Amino acid sequence: SIDADLVVLAVGHEQDNTLHRLIKDAYITPELHLLGDAAHTGMIMHAVRAGYRTGLSI
If 36 and its partner were Cys, which of 5, 11, 47, 49 is the partner (CB 3.0–4.6 Å)? Predict the structure, then answer.
């Protein structure tokens, strides 16, 4: 289980961090992570690695 107020899963082929900016503006949160293609387009293995490292840091 995840103890969180909000968890977002987004998929697509183009970089779009609009949702990240909306959440950042709407919530006061100590941790908000932008990764994968939302941060920059790239290879899936890099996105998975970023997600793994972020998960370890939480």
Answer: 47
Residues 34, 54: Cα–Cα separation, whole Å: 10
Question: What's the pLDDT band for 15 if we cut at 50, 70, 90?
Answer: confident
Quote the CA–CA distance of 26 and 54 in Å, as a whole number: 22
> What is the residue type of 23?
I
Measured distance CA(17)–CA(28) in Å, rounded: 18
The CA dihedral of 44, 50, 54, 56, to the nearest 10 degrees, is: 90
Q: What is the mean pLDDT of the chain?
A: 83
Q: Which residue has the tokens 């959440």?
A: 23
The pLDDT of residue 12 is above 80:
no
